[in-house]
Fold:
Amino acid sequence: MSTVYVVGIGPGAYEKMTVEAAEALRKSDVIIGYTVYVELVKEHFPDKEFMTTPMTREVDRCVLAFEEAKKGRVVSMICSGDAGVYGMAGLMYEVGVQYPEVELSIIPGVTAATGGAAVLGAPLIHDFCLISLSDLLTPWEKIEKRLLNAAEADFVICLYNPSSRKRHDYLAKACDLVLRFQGEDTVCGIVENIGREGEAWKVMSLKELRDTQVDMFTTVFIGNSQTKEIGGKMVTPRGYRNV
Amino acid sequence: MSTVYVVGIGPGAYEKMTVEAAEALRKSDVIIGYTVYVELVKEHFPDKEFMTTPMTREVDRCVLAFEEAKKGRVVSMICSGDAGVYGMAGLMYEVGVQYPEVELSIIPGVTAATGGAAVLGAPLIHDFCLISLSDLLTPWEKIEKRLLNAAEADFVICLYNPSSRKRHDYLAKACDLVLRFQGEDTVCGIVENIGREGEAWKVMSLKELRDTQVDMFTTVFIGNSQTKEIGGKMVTPRGYRNV
Structure:
């Protein structure tokens, strides 16, 4: 039985990859992924064969991985962040039904929520939600419901895919929904290009976040009622009693 | 200015640590942590000095780290999983207000949600919540509200601290709340001792989960309306359109 590794490579920098992820790539014959992620690992594994498919061809990418494994090659399918958080692990299981002779091994990684949190300080710490603002595969009504329920229950919220060319006003819409339950001064933060060239971060109020333009390489953190700014960093205490 | 590294060591196995985390420990003079986590890393860094404080002495542990750093020593404060997810990063910023001459560097890691997900298959994939069932620092009413709101909005839910000696019925109580919005056949999963000796996992229905006894080393995953079982694994598709 051959195995395909589905590998979360972390935010981008080699150092933020797990030891296990680096080992899987090292023993692979071929590394498959979306073009942008392949470029991130290429320099660290120069002797490997790389294969890419564009953004919207995820099913083709999975089929490619299984077909290469069937030939007896050691294959890694790479995802940025964690393979199981807005990553390829789920689709690999779905497509894998057609390839019972190939086994999947999922190798977890640091996702943008935790990678970005480390840059901002300690914004998550306790209960939190991850919500993607992309309505490509999810109806906007469902996203809206999740934002409202998360804000009402005082979760810290981490937003993935907060913007794109077609969705430039989605972050403002999301902030307006959260503002129904959380104050304008709620401490928020954004991180661009986590663990990559051009990494930048900013702590701001929910009101300021509402009027901030972000791009698709930005991860957004909306604090809860307990989140505060300490020395310029965004920090949520664990629990509700004072230290 | 001296630096304290606050290091997420991942679920436990050395291989699941990031390259950066291993480097931080390698260049440290002293490694500080809760006894259980210190035992997990000790064998891989045999030449280091280790210091521990018990479970409830977290503030003392932070003070210890800052005091050692003030002496000019390179210090790592270790946390299991990610330093910023139910970890020490937040408290270190709070205590750090008293130590303006010491800088914090947070090094993210693989948290139980993503580490456990990789064992179960691909249960998270899209929007999800992390909720701790420990009411040591959070009122139960707040936990209850979060469970209800998360279930109503069809989030996948990952439960940390699902049980303890004093809270043996909390998982059943949590399942009963989720059952108000999700069906009895909702696909769920548990993982014990993620990435450690004795790792074990099981996929089951929400009804079965309700009547399952778990311990404090277990992470629990409750699927959403889209989650399914594929070849014995727990898989949530990304989005709501068919492949």
